[in-house]
Amino acid sequence: MGTLNVLGLKSHELTTVLRNETGFANLVAMLLLAALVSAVGSVLIRRRHGVNSWTAAGILALVLATVPFTTVVALTIPAGARTWSWRAGLVLSCVLAAAGLALLVRGASRRPGRRVPWQSVLLACSAVLCSSATYTAVRLESKSQLDTTRPQMSAAVAHTGGAGVITMTVSASKLRKKERVGVLVRGFPRGGDRGCKPSEYMATCVIKACPPRINKCAHLFSGTLDPDSSGVIDKQVVSTVFPPDKYELLDLRATICEQLDTRGAEQCRYGHKEASLLVEVTLPSLPVQTAGRTSGPG
Length: 298
Prior knowledge:
This protein is an alpha+beta fold and 298 residues long. The chain contains 7 helices and 10 strands. It is rod-shaped.
């Protein structure tokens, strides 16, 4: 656990990373194991044993090729990856791998000349692999946080005379620079066809009532909430008035704007990082029921 803390994976976030990013967690473990084996091998091998200098340079170049490949190419941070950085990492990894293979071929074809101790080669490889594992772990934690960050939302309905008031409380954290939360309220007409099956639960039924990107529900309110300098939206309240006699269901959504980088210009896309709440509206004399789902940080 102490090693993981040094590498950037905190104990309270380790289970989230292992649950959501098992493959990349295994990659970090393999890099650490390779670094450990290389370090132990440098201690066990005798100092007089050496390798051709061209071969030693080829081995080191191949190991260096794993750094940009594992940290930039394979492990892409969502909503924050620059196209040029991914391409640069891929090109650098390929160049180093090609140079390493060329050096190995040259070392195998030449007569034994200047030799480099295996201890030095293995220690250098261990240092490179450990550095690669460290940076991969840091990027993995960032990726896990971005993947699992969701807004949180609660709602309450009140009746004032013949009007209804829906009040939403929205919270979010770990938002990136210029990211924000979009809020949407839609109403399902009273007496409309929800398309429910008799065997379906109420929550499943009402989710089908207001499908995304289909004008089956009326638009009641939409807006955006901006975070503070720390990337936090702390229980911001949004209210809107609606006629309860016209709508039997309110579809409430809070979605994080994910930043995209298109040729250097940052754009906003409302993706899957969403919290939703569906409120069953009755007449003022009857209680209000809620059904749906809310999502919070993993």
